[in-house]
From TrEMBL:
Protein name per its UniProtKB record: Tetratricopeptide repeat protein
Record keyword Hydrolase present: no
Coiled coil (UniProt feature): none
Residues in TPR repeats: 89-122
PROSITE patterns for the chain: TPR
Gene3D superfamilies: Tetratricopeptide repeat domain
UniProt KW keywords: TPR repeat
The organism of origin for this protein: Anaeromyxobacter paludicola
Amino acid sequence: MTEEENENGATSRAAALSVALEALAEGKRRFFERDVEGAHSAFERAWRRAANDPHVLSWYGVTLVMVERNSNLGVSYCDQAVRVAGPEPELYLNQARAHLALGQRERAVRALQRGLEQFPGETTLLAAKELMGWRRRPVLPFLPRSSFLNRWLGKLRYRWAKRSLPPIELSPVTLGQLPERAGEGR
């Protein structure tokens, strides 16, 4: 292979990656605007240009599950993205989105837990955790969770928190969005 052919190959790969990144950005924008089918087509275009990019793979996997209901391939892409890129909050969040779209709440929670173990202060993961409604510590930790007082105080705490925060629907699209952003789509 000549030097000129190497340069042409590198240039075309850079151009393909640039197009893929533009399609990825468009897909994310459409996803957060709740145009999941439009996002899926953008992610598919990105995937055709840069199939090995973990972010492209992960986002394409999420919309494969949501739009085409291809659960095996979609979840597999999300898992592969985490293995290739290593721990990244966005990739864990996409794993959780894919599992939530399949109605696998427990697996979604586990994906978020893995992400929070790696990135304990990550705001998107914390927002997703809050939205998923994980069990909180009992109000009175010295009493068992099943005690009347803890159950009653827990209900009061839940009602108070629900009243003070704007209502946010639990869906793969809203998962991980901060409250201000989640309310924009309404």
